[in-house]
Amino acid sequence: GENVEQHPSTLSVQEGDSAVIKCTYSDSASNYFPWYKQELGKGPQLIIDIRSNVGEKKDQRIAVTLNKTAKHFSLHITETQPEDSAVYFCAGEGGNTPLVFGKGTRLSVIA
Amino acid sequence: DAGVIQSPRHEVTEMGQEVTLRCKPISGHNSLFWYRQTMMRGLELLIYFNNNVPIDDSGMPEDRFSAKMPNASFSTLKIQPSEPRDSAVYFCASSLIGPEQYFGPGTRLTVT
Questions:
Q1: Shortest CB distance from B33 goes to which of A49, A98, A103?
Q2: Of A55, A74, B13, B59, which has the fewest Cβ atoms less than 10 A away?
Q3: How does strand B19-24 pair with strand B74-79?
Q4: Least CB-CB distance to B43: which of A42, A46, A101?
Q5: Is the dihedral of CA B32, A28, A65, B98 positive or negative?
Q6: What does the pLDDT look like over B29-56, one tens digit per residue?
Q7: Between A and B, how many residue pairs show a Cβ–Cβ distance under 8 A?
Q8: Which residues of chain B have pLDDT under 70?
Q9: What distance in Å separates residue B105's CA from the closest CA in chain A?
Q10: DSSP per-residue letters across B83-108
Q11: Residue B77 forms beta bridges with which residues?
Q12: CA distances from B4 to A30, B27, B28, B66 (A)
């Protein structure tokens, strides 16, 4: 089955800097890769996703890139703000199997 | 639009007691997922339903855990008897046709 590894587990950046979180997956059949943001006391919220027929996708300050050959994908947050502080999860899904999540990255944006 | 609704938001119970967690998926969604989140193990999929039918319950840790989905708008996760190691945050998520899942706010369970 699918295995998703996520790095780093914690990340601190200065406000205004960029943050990058990386994930690798094992199942070459996986074709859907979402990213979730979880704020304290809340459920994970889908913020952006990418499918295997696309190499990059952007939505304002966040972007996701996918390298199917290397089986890795990354989340990029530019011009970070304090409200970006949260735990971020990547996930992979292939075919008829449900999402498999990474262990999460705790992002702290220091004002 | 109302998102996924879970109740209760917090539950504190004593070891050995029965616990029932409830979930109302987003209206029209046909898949429902139960997850458990702990610091040690992260987000674990316990069971999921498609059109009210359980598809995969291989993530259910023990026979003490059971889940039902009697109709398209309601699901329960029951733990009987509960143990301290069941303490965690339990999430319900739902999806429509595609793989995008939408999570509820979670139930924080504490078993003393």
A1: A98
A2: A55
A3: antiparallel
A4: A101
A5: negative
A6: 999 999 999 998 899 999 999 999 999 9
A7: 42
A8: 1
A9: 4
A10: -GGG-EEEEEEEESSSS--EE---EE
A11: B21, B67
A12: 26, 9, 11, 20
> What is the residue type of A31?
N
Contact (CB<8Å) A43/B4:
yes
**Hey, what are A40's tokens?**
């304290």
Q: What residue in B sits closest to A40 (Cα-Cα)?
A: B105
Bridge partners, residue A2, by sequence = none
Q: Which two tokens stand for residue B93?
A: 């998520």
Cα-based distances in Å from B94 to A2, A77, B23, B109? 20, 27, 10, 21
Q: How far is CA B105 from CA A21, A58, A59, A90, A103, in A?
A: 24, 27, 24, 19, 19
- The pLDDT value recorded for residue B1 is 64
| Sequence letter at residue B63 | D
Q: For residue A57, what are its two tokens?
A: 């996708």
Tokens of A94: 């292939």
Structure tokens at B22: 């409830």
